[in-house]
Amino acid sequence: MARFCDLSGKGPMTGNSVSHSNIKTKRRFYPNLQKKSFFIPELNRWIDLKVSTSAIRTINKKGIYSYLKELEKKGEVQLGF
Fold it and tell me: 26, CA 20 to 30 Å: which among 9, 13, 39, 64?
């Protein structure tokens, strides 16, 4: 299961773990992903998505249907409804 947001496309980043003695080892920073169900009243159906918390905040601000339409217009998401 890939650790990418279904809507925003956020994925893991790489960086260094730095110890007290300043030894650096590679590590990964994972996005804060949540499995969430959204109800779309315009389509009268539920969808299950794995989204980042920043995408959830955007959905709360704009609404799920308008956010999906905006992403579809940009070509980032294809709606198969």
Answer: 9
